[in-house]
Amino acid sequence: MTKVNLSPAVLGRLTRDSLFWLATVTPSATPHLAPVWYIWHDERLYIFTGGIKLHNLQANPAVSLALQDGMRPVILEGEAAPVTSSRTFDGVAARYRARFAWDISAEVGPMQLIEVMPRKILNWSGETQAEELPIPPPQALASEKASPALQRAKARLHREHIIWLATVRPERRPHLVPIWHVWHQDKLYISTGEHSVKMRNIRHQPQVMLALPSAMDVVLVQGVARPAPALADELAPAFLRKFDWDFRNDSEYGALVEIVPRKILTWQGDYRHAPSRAL
Question: Of 57, 258, 264, which Cα lies nearest the Cα of 156?
Answer without folding.
Answer: 264
